[in-house]
Structure to design on (326 residues):
């Protein structure tokens, strides 16, 4: 692990960092870097995100202009846009010795972009989304990040990357060396196996209780909307999944957990997890994603329509109205 004492901002002194994309991650990256005294420009296409960057006081340019002006280029746009944007606007503007930073290893892992051999290429992947990255920074702490030096043309790629990590607040928590391939595969598995599993568990619990005659809003609150379960998971991140139940759960809670732990998910779920992981590793998921993107993501529209019409969502809308937060 790399911490504050392992990094120095001297390695980015006099350098301009181009943050490409001012969305969920880009906004946090740009703000944290600027507050750490790093010279930042934003590269973004002409849309509402560009307008926000300008309103936030950043020197905002086209993607190509920003990449040309920066000796450090951080790519923070959606994965599906990487190939076209990289080939058209970034690769022609990467000078010898420039540092090219990705926050997710997807495009390198699956060969969707090929950086020039004369540039440093690294992964710096925070294990948190934009809002908490910014919040933890302003509170004087930071979030965990993974780092991988993919290509070290200058001989100083790690030092310069750790300088960026320090400016982002990541070294306050810790920066762990993890290969870009591993980071990509773990991230995709979480998104395709663990997250749907959790969502389905909440939905199923809601449906079982409502079908049994319980009122919808108290059910929603007790299952997740009160935030109790979320707080438990936050605590578990530092304490441990089993330890948090031991430390925070009543004897009744602990008895209930141990009575059914390991009995609700069968080997069929484990087998499905292995199938999903294999599809991630062999490129099957990337092929499916490419077809979906080329068609304009029709399944996402179907998914949005489905969950908005669901009883869980309608109940949550009612809860927000009752609380005056709608």
């Amino acid at each position: 692990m790399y911490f504050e004492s392992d990094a120095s901002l001297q390695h980015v002194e006099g350098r301009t960092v181009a943050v490409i994309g001012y969305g969920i991650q880009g906004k946090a990256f740009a703000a944290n870097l600027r507050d750490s005294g790093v010279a930042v420009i934003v590269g973004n296409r002409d849309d509402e995100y560009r307008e926000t960057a300008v309103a936030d006081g950043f020197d905002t340019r086209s993607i190509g202009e920003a990449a040309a002006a920066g000796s450090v280029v951080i790519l923070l746009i959606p994965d599906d846009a990487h190939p076209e944007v990289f080939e058209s606007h970034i690769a022609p503007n990467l000078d010898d010795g420039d540092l090219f930073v990705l926050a997710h290893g997807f495009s390198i892992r699956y060969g969707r972009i090929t950086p020039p051999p004369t540039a440093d290429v690294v992964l710096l992947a925070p294990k948190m989304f934009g809002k908490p990255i910014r919040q933890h920074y302003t509170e004087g702490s930071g979030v965990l990040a993974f780092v991988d030096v993919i290509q070290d043309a200058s001989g100083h790629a790690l030092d310069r990357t750790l300088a960026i990590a320090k400016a982002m607040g990541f070294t306050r928590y810790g920066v762990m060396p993890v290969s870009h391939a591993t980071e990509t595969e773990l991230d995709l598995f979480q998104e395709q196996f663990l997250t749907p599993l959790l969502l389905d568990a909440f939905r199923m619990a809601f449906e079982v209780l409502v079908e049994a005659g319980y009122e919808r809003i108290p059910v929603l609150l007790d299952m997740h909307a009160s935030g109790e379960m979320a707080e438990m998971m936050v605590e578990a991140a530092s304490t441990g999944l089993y330890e948090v139940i031991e430390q925070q759960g009543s004897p009744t809670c602990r008895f209930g957990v141990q009575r059914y732990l390991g009995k609700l998910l069968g080997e069929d779920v484990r087998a499905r997890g292995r199938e999903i992981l294999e599809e991630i590793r062999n490129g099957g998921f990337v092929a499916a994603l490419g077809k979906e993107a080329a068609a304009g993501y029709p399944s996402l529209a179907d998914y949005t329509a489905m969950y908005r019409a669901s009883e869980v969502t309608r109940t949550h809308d009612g809860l927000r109205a009752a609380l005056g937060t709608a």
Summary: The longest strand covers residues 120-126.
